[in-house]
């Protein structure tokens, strides 16, 4: 018996130790209006995690996910951040929007760990508003506005523009900032007027009157808005007989809102990838099908994509650093210049943990149907002083 016990003890010592799981904490909105943005991106992140785990894991460890609900509330966001830390998180994924993700990201920063916003497009969702270990793989809102300015000028010969800004969230201001910076630089281009409204305004009649009082209908209206206010604004603009090409940012990608604006035409947005099966990159459609296999439906908008990309980039940085320690991973992320991903190259630097340049797919709605019509990458990044001045 003693011999058998000794042999068992020796065998136990000789057996390889099972590596502990590597824990990623998701402090995201599982309820409230941000859930519609966070859930698709979090699902995409889980798809990439599943792929990594199936391939053997990260640093020889399987990735485990823990979650806490921010309830689309700033105070609850901080609590959710603390919750996932208590559950053992070694990296934190936070809500899509800066305002609702930052309280959790600040918790991660205090712990010296990396945080990634699921799809935030405000420059403050990174070094500028959180700290040196915070990132977003999504494309800055000002880049979206600048993309629309340059594309419309080059491809639709837009020379006059009216800018209509929804003051609801910082994202909207960012779109207008990028457009207002780029459009006047272009040959023969002029912003002939501007106005603002609130997302929940029942009517934008006074703003429409200002547009109709111009000497000539503007070639484009740069509408910087999100749902539901964006749909209401578009409906009222078209009902007033204004036929200008309407531009917006990525936040209104998707066909889910088009019932509110039947047979809409002449509406254009830039996106990171097309959900409509017409993206020229096979990797994008492969992801769309993987998403459908996991959820039973294709992505409803492009906002699923940054979730997949953030895990991909973070995992590459962890492998190169040989650790999940925040500062070491940050150093590797900041070395990335045009790092390949399924949705195009991504770059970070010691000054900016966001995408200040990206190849965007151009989606146009015609007769109520969205489709990819082009692609565009801005001729220059938006300067830091412009990003910060907004």
Distinctive features:
Rossmann fold; globular; 390 residues; 7-stranded mixed β-sheet; disordered N terminus; 12 strands; alpha/beta; 5-stranded parallel β-sheet; 13 helices
Low-confidence stretches: 1-17
How many helices? The count is 13
SS strand fraction: 15-25%
CATH class of the largest domain: Alpha Beta
User: Could you name the CATH homologous superfamily of the largest domain?
Assistant: Response regulator
Sequence of secondary-structure elements? HEHEHEHEHEHEHEHEHEEHHHEEH
Instruction: Give me the oligomer status.
Output: single chain
Q: Which structural class is indicated by helix and strand composition? A: alpha/beta
Describe this structure in words.
- The chain is α/β, with parallel strands linked by helices and 390 residues long.
- The chain has two domains: 22-139 and 283-333, Rossmann fold (3-Layer(aba) Sandwich), CATH 3.40.50; 141-271 and 359-389, Rossmann fold (3-Layer(aba) Sandwich).
- The chain is 40% helix and 17% strand.
- It has 13 helices and twelve strands.
- It has helices at residues 2-14, 35-54, 74-86, 98-110, 124-128, 141-155, 170-182, 205-212, 229-239, 282-295, 305-321, 326-333, 384-389; strands at residues 22-28, 63-69, 91-94, 115-117, 134-136, 160-166, 190-197, 220-224, 245-247, 267-271, 360-366, 369-376.
- It has a seven-stranded mixed beta sheet, sandwiched between helices. Strands 2-1-3-4-5 form a five-stranded parallel beta sheet, with helices on both faces.
- α2 (35-54) links the parallel β1 (22-28) and β2.
- α3 (74-86) runs parallel beside α4 and α11 crosses α12.
- It is globular, with a radius of gyration of 23 Å.
- Residues 1-17 have low confidence and may be disordered.
């Amino acid at each position: 018996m003693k011999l058998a016990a000794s042999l068992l003890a020796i065998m136990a010592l000789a057996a390889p130790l099972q590596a502990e799981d590597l824990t990623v904490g998701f402090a995201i909105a599982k309820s409230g209006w941000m859930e519609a943005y966070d859930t698709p991106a979090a699902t995409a992140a889980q798809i990439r995690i599943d792929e990594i785990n199936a391939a053997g894991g990260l640093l020889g460890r399987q990735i485990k996910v823990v979650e806490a609900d921010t309830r689309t509330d700033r105070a609850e966001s901080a609590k959710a951040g603390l919750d996932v830390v208590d559950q053992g998180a070694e990296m934190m994924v936070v809500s899509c929007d800066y305002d609702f993700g930052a309280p959790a990201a600040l918790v991660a920063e205090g712990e010296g760990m990396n945080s990634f916003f699921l799809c935030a497009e405000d420059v403050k969702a990174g070094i500028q508003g959180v700290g040196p270990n915070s990132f977003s793989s999504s494309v800055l809102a000002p880049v979206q506005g600048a993309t629309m300015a340059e594309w419309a000028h080059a491809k639709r010969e837009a020379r006059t523009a009216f800018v209509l800004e929804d003051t609801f969230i910082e994202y909207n201001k960012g779109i207008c900032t990028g457009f207002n910076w780029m459009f006047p630089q272009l040959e023969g281009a002029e912003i002939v007027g501007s106005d603002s409204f609130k997302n929940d305004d029942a009517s934008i009649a006074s703003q429409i009157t200002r547009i109709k009082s111009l000497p000539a209908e503007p070639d484009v209206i740069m509408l910087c808005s999100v749902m539901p206010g964006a749909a209401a604004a578009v409906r009222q603009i078209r009902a007033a007989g204004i036929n200008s090409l309407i531009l917006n940012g990525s936040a209104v990608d998707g066909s889910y809102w088009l019932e509110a604006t039947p047979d809409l035409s002449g509406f254009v947005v830039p996106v990171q990838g097309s959900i409509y099966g017409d993206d020229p990159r096979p990797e994008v459609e492969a992801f769309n099908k993987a998403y459908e296999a996991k959820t039973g439906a294709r992505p409803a908008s492009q906002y699923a994509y940054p979730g997949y990309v953030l895990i991909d980039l973070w995992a590459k940085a962890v492998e190169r650093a040989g650790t999940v320690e925040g500062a070491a991973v940050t150093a590797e992320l900041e070395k990335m210049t045009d790092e390949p991903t399924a949705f195009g190259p991504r770059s970070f630097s010691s000054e900016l943990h966001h995408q200040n340049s990206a190849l965007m797919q151009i989606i146009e709605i015609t007769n109520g149907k969205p489709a990819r019509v082009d692609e565009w990458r801005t001729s220059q990044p938006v300067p830091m002083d412009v990003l910060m001045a907004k």
